[in-house]
Model the fold of this input.
Amino acid sequence: MILMKKLTYPLSLLCLLFILPGCETVVEAELPAPESALVVNAVINPDSLFTVDVSASQSAFSGGSHGPVATATIQVYQANQLLYTLEHQGNGIYSTTQAPQMLQHYQLQVQAPGFPAATAATYIPAKPVIGRLTAATEAATEWQGPSVSASFVLTDPPAQDNYYFVQAYTPDSSYVDGHAYNRSVGLKIAAPFEAEFTMGDRYFFSDKLFEGKEVPLRLRLDNSPEATTFVRVAHITRTYYDYVRTLDKQSYRDNFATLPGPVANNIKDGMGLFGGYSAVTLAVKP
Done:
């Protein structure tokens, strides 16, 4: 004989189970729109003029774009002394005829009507120390034609955290009008490590695996051995590295399980990036 135990529940609990599924209250709350702020973006280096891009932030609920700001006053300081005031070139782009200098620190002050004044500071690192460059032709494979390998040694400065990017390009005049431009060349860091993340054609990495040492780098370049490939190795500021790293994480890479996160920002009372770098360009041809 099978005994069956009868389960009993309080009447109040049974009523609650029937009532809860039908309870729904819609509360409409008007959230205050965040105050608009200046969005300042500038990555300076000794090989280019001092240039700053200024726009205005938008609420996530506005559906608008980041509009350029054409009424800003942008001043560059060094040791609290005014160096120059940038001129508006159109579409929110400001520049001067001066280029920043390596190993120098700069302060940026951006003011525009209707916005809090934004400030930031950065510096230009030393050029990366590169030596012993060699190049060779890589044989064609089943998936691609012949390519180029480049090897060189990067000497990392000791007793400090250092950050880098590497990119490659080649002059191309294959357009009908014959106008030459620098076409990006795909690359792969073959040894001794892989790039940590990318932005466009720039491959970023830190010295956490080789701090203060000489590290041999070997690149595979997706370009014809008959052409000259230019490899640019840049020593960058921590703020630039952090900005791109968090921007890369926020991109989700089509992974909807990735939670959104904030992008690194070193603009006080504003948004964006003020970073710097110095670069060495290598001409590679087997």
About this structure: Residues 238-250 form the longest helix (13 residues). The helical segments are 11-19, 238-250. Residues 1-9, 13-20 have pLDDT under 50 and may be disordered.
